[in-house]
Structure formats: C-alpha cells, structure tokens
C-alpha cells in the first residue's frame, strides 16, 4: 500500500504540468513567429515521463487516468497551445491502445511496451485518414509497399512511429483498409515541412511522404472494408477528443487569464465588466462540456450513442473556446 501511495505522489501531473508550463512559456511566441517545432516543450515532457504516463502500470507505464492527463494538457495549453496539442496526439493513441488492451483483449500490449522501453513518440495520421483512408498498399513478398502522403501529422519532427492506414485492393475482398505503424525515419519516408498556418504554428503538423516504404506482414494490426464504419472508430471517438480538446480548452483559459490581467489595469467600466462576464460564461460552458467528454472517455461504452454524445460535446467545447478567446480579444 505504501508503494502505491509513493508512486501516486511521484506522479502529480497537475504540479508537473504547472512546472513545465512555466518553463516553456517564454518559447511559445518564438515558435509561433518562425513556424518551428516546440522542441523545449517536448523535451520537458519526455524528461517528466509524460509520454509513458497513460501506459498501464502492468506494461511498465505510469498508469495515469485520462482525466489526469487531460488536466495536464489543459494547463500546458494555457502556456503553449502547440506543445499541448502535439502532445495530445501521442496521448490519445496511447490511451486508445491501453483501453483496447484492457477492455477488448486487443494485442496492443506490444506497442505499449515499446512506447516505454524504446521511449517512442507516436504520431497520428487522423487528420488525413478517415473511413476511406488514403494512400495505397502494393503486395510484395513478405509484406507491402506503402505509397502515401499524410497531412497534419502533428509532432512529426520528433516522432518515431506514424499510426496510420492505407488502401489495399485485395483480389478476394476488394478495397480493404490496412492499419499499421509506419516508421518516421529511414529510407522510403520523408517529412515535408509544409506547416505554414495562422495558429498552432509550433505543432510540427507537417506532411509525411512515403515512397515505397516496406511494411511487413507482421506490422498489419487490423483490416476492414473501405468506407465502412468500424468499432475502432467508436473507441477513438469516445477517448481521443477529450484529450485533444484539453489543449483547446487550455488555450481559451490562457487567453482569458491574460485578458483579465490587462483589464485589471484599466479604469472601472460597465462595458468592460460585461465583456468579462460574457467571457467567463463561455469559458464555463467549455469547461462543463469538456468535463462531460472526460466522463465519456473514462466510463462510457463505445457505440453509436456514445460517439454522438462525444461529438456533440466536441462541438460545444470548440465553439465555447472560440467564443472565450473572441471575448478575451
């Protein structure tokens, strides 16, 4: 029992996140101005053990809850949105893999052990892959050759594996989507620095280009008919967006905090007070909707109703966060 208490004390992610947020705050503007990746933020997270925090203790990780990591991402997002958002992409992949291993008996333990043992950082291609997926797989001896361009791969400058999919025209089953992890370093893969945007400039959400990269048969983690909704998407929907939108909630809270700091220096004004109240209302709406997203992620069973609830909350958090920042401005 004492060991468990000591372990829990050693993983106070709220305190760790506050420390990291303070240390990287001065770097955020520089990365935003020159479109560079938030290396300091990722280095601080790695040193703190963040990238293994959601791996179950049985597999060597921190065994932290989704709610704890969501809180950490929110705190970091208030200081540097790009660090939080890029880190959330790794986090949601790990969280989904952990949930599937614990609740569905999925053979994802190998990946989770590698995250711990090899200190891997995972990247998602969800921004360019959907039910139809993108890219092609050509069957060759022992595996496949992958040809694809995956956009919005946040964290790709320092990532190790891209969790992705591509389409194989199976002679028997027709168009089939294959799911696998593709290495982000080595022959047949390159990172195209295309991320030039008006916000979140430090996420390193560049394009990953695969030109005949060999994917062995053993690397194929799953397959499904192209264009058909799969249970995997219900699991992803219930878990991933709670983590991802923690970063956006953090951005809204950071904007609100800075706006109030400035407002306190101004003379009393009825309109200013009204704007501040409207901002607080919208932030509260974002917090409440996000709280529900976390509840769904941690306790709801995957399925159509859960996915619908999660996506409704996703919309509410997004809209309220945008409104909060608009009022702050």
Describe the structure.
With 329 residues, the chain is an alpha+beta fold. 53% of the residues lie in helices and 18% in strands. The protein is built from nine helices and eight strands. The strands form two sheets. It has a four-stranded mixed β-sheet. It has a four-stranded antiparallel β-sheet with strand order 2-3-7-6, with no helix packed on it. Strand 2 (136-140) and strand 3 form a beta hairpin.
Helicity, as a percent range: 40-55%
Structural class: alpha+beta
Overall geometry comes to globular
Count of helices? Answer: 9
From N to C, what is the helix and strand string? HHHHHHEEEEEEEEHHH
Low-pLDDT segments: 1-9
Task: Give the SSE map.
Layout (H helix, E strand, L loop, with lengths): L1 H8 L3 H22 L4 H10 L17 H14 L1 H23 L5 H9 L4 E3 L11 E5 L2 E11 L7 E10 L3 E10 L5 E4 L13 E11 L3 E6 L5 H33 L6 H30 L4 H25 L1
Parallel strand pairs: 1-4
Antiparallel strand pairs: 2-3, 3-7, 4-5, 5-8, 6-7
Helix pairs in contact: 2-3, 2-4, 4-5, 4-7, 5-7, 7-8, 7-9, 8-9
Brief overview, please?
This protein has 329 residues and is of the alpha+beta class.
Index terms:
disordered N terminus, four-stranded mixed beta sheet, 8 strands, four-stranded antiparallel beta sheet, alpha+beta, globular, 329 residues
């Amino acid at each position: 029992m004492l060991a468990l208490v000591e372990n829990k004390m050693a993983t106070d992610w709220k305190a760790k996140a506050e420390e990291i947020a303070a240390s990287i705050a001065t770097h955020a503007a520089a990365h935003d101005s020159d479109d560079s990746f938030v290396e300091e933020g990722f280095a601080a997270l790695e040193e703190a053990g963040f990238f293994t925090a959601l791996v179950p203790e049985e597999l060597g990780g921190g065994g932290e809850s989704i709610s704890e990591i969501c809180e950490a991402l929110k705190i970091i997002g208030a200081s540097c949105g790009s660090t939080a958002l890029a880190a959330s992409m790794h986090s949601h992949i790990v969280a989904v893999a952990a949930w599937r291993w614990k609740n569905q008996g999925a053979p994802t333990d190998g990946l989770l052990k590698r995250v711990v043992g090899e200190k891997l950082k995972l990247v998602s291609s969800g921004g360019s892959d959907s039910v139809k997926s993108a890219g092609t797989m050509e069957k060759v001896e022992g595996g496949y050759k992958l040809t694809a361009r995956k956009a919005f791969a946040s964290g790709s400058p320092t990532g190790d594996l891209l969790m992705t999919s591509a389409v194989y025209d199976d002679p028997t089953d027709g168009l089939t989507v294959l799911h696998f992890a593709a290495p982000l370093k080595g022959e047949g893969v390159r990172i195209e620095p295309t991320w030039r945007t008006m916000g979140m400039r430090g996420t390193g959400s560049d394009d990953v280009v695969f030109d005949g990269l060999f994917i062995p048969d053993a690397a194929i983690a799953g397959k499904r008919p192209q264009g058909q909704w799969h249970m995997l998407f219900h699991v992803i929907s219930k878990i991933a967006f709670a983590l991802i939108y923690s970063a956006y909630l953090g951005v809204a809270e950071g904007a609100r905090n800075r706006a109030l700091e400035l407002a306190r220096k101004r003379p009393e004004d009825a309109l200013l007070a009204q704007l501040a109240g409207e901002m607080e209302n919208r932030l509260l709406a974002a917090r409440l909707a996000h709280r529900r997203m976390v509840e769904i992620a941690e306790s709801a069973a995957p399925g159509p109703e859960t996915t619908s609830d999660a996506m409704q909350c996703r919309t509410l958090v997004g809209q309220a966060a945008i409104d909060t920042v608009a009022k702050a401005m």
